[in-house]
FAD/NAD(P)-binding domain-containing protein (Massarina eburnea CBS 473.64), 705 residues
Amino acid sequence: MASEMKTVAIVGAGPAGLVTAATLLRTLRFRVTIFEKTSEIGGLWSPNGLIDPNMSANLCQSTVSFAGLSWQSIGAAAVHPKARHVTQYLNEYYRRYIPDGTVVFDTEVTKVEDLFADTSSGKWKVTTITKRADSIETQESKFDFMVLATGPFAKPQTADDFASGDLLQMSKVPIVHSTKYRSLADINLAKGASLAPGSQIVVVGGSHSGSEIATKIALELSTLAVTQQAPQPELIHISSRRLFALSPLLPTGQEGTAGFEPADFRLYSRSSRPPDQTVSFTYGLFNSQKHDGGVKMMQALSGYDSVLGEEDSQDMQLSAVISESYAQMAAFGLIKPVQGNLLRLEQAPGKSTLTATVKPHSAENITLKNIVGVVHANGFNAAASVSFLDESTRTQLGYDPSCERFPLLLDASYLSQNSRVPQLAVMGFAMQYWGVMEMQARALAEAWVNGNMLPAPEERKSIADYWTALREAIKSHDTASIPPNPFGDYVGLVEQAARELRLERLDGKWSESEGPICPARYVDRNDENQKAAAVEAITKVQELQHSGEASAAFAARAVFYGLLGTWGTRDAETDVEATTSVQDELIFRPRLCADGNLDFEYLVNRPSRQATTHEIYRHEEGTDHISVWSFSAERPLSAPECVEKVTFGGENATSPDSITARKTQVESGEAIADYRFQFTGTRIIRVEVKSGTVTEVWLPAAFKG
């Protein structure tokens, strides 16, 4: 067997590199070396990676996983893990499946050359630089196969498109990429700039990272507004796309109930396809029909129109992001979305602030003034991730550096290979779903062990044609033709790959046409360890989907995040549409929580003619209630005592459009009020509060400042 072993070099010890190594090693046909330029595994998810360790994943743990390791085995309970929990998961995967000595740390690959003229000594020559404490070592090694697992995130985009080199060097106003942002100190306080009223902070970019950073800054500013009792800078979020924000929890879609479940369960459900249909990967450019269908779907799921307003232009690219509170923050006025392209940043004459010129989609240019901080979330230069490949190899891969988002043409092994270069793979480049990366790794093993490259040649040609058309649309700025997620058919790709790779399918209590698609549903035949871990993971997913306890917890969380904002209150007897009937206001203002285990809490204000009352509302993920805490004016940042709970679940907990709950006193257990929260999508549009014989109604109100 040893004489048949082939050598494989993998660049990068992130999720893609680890699952590829583990998959190839299981065949007992390869000797694998992983080159990792840092001292840690994890890639983006490493403690010193590009992702904030405290940021929550926008997909749940069943999607952010591999078939051979369940989250339960590492003791993780959160449905949506934080980045630091993902790091723990990857470290355990590494410990179980990657032998000692496989990863060469602190070693950067600087050059990869195709030795097509000397195949006897290995096809690829890899040049590396290893940094030691007291030296730097350069080495050349030869390998039979090459895997690039660096992903498309190696080099953040610069601000050169809208800021001159002189401005970037000389500006006193911080201009930072979203990967460098952790707190307001990164753009303002640490630099000594003013947070005076009338100033502005600008976030640029309509991607997931743009919406996440905008939400994070909005929460920080809202907290300062409470602690400093003063107006804060206006937060402007510039996006060139028509942006929709979907919650990590979405309506189940089950008839007769207003329940919620993780977005993955709804978006990636096998039941979204006809039960008698063989499901395969679909792709194609956008058109007006797909645009309209996408808008209707996102409106129905979220309950909100685009956060940029109701204007609908089919030549604007759609963008859907997963964010728990972005839409509510925007409706509340903590984020001001601006549709358009940032043309330029300039130094304000005679001031230390910046001005920005923005070109809206269908209006004259607008100018933003008094900017004290800029965070640009304008993506990454994916072309830089393959810069160490020799020119001949890049040419064979269809390399086009002018298309920075998709610089390579990958038609084989489920978007991880170019069929013209069969001894090289590029993992997790077009799709970053963990389940897709695992399928890509299995396809590599099939190609390199059995010589069977998937999918079939005619489909590879179709994918290559689409890839070419997509790149042309991007380069020509034909935004109407660019899908929100150009390679987004996760369900289709994984189902097709599992079928063509002849994997064993684990459906548990589901039929083959039911339930969410996740990595644990597909395991390698005759791998009992992988199957045992996958069964454990599938069982957990099915418990989350069907248990009353989980349903109550999801309901509590959906209501908690849906309460953000200002509510007009009135007696039910005067409940009419006219805003003149509003008797009172109830303001749920988010702020950072002193308890670091919670994302945020609400300071709930109820102004009245006599006095303003205050309470603090909290929710801990996985619990079936919202807790109500007392407020102390002497210690405004603390929550002295939990006095009441709003508990979800029980009989008649849901109706077709509403969720019910009961508020009780903590000390006595006495019932105080019954609530009915009426939803459209994930948006609460009406709350009824019945206390004794009196029923109060809350309706969303405009932000009052």
User: Anything to note?
Assistant: The chain has 13 helices and 31 strands. The first strand starts at residue 6 and ends at 11.
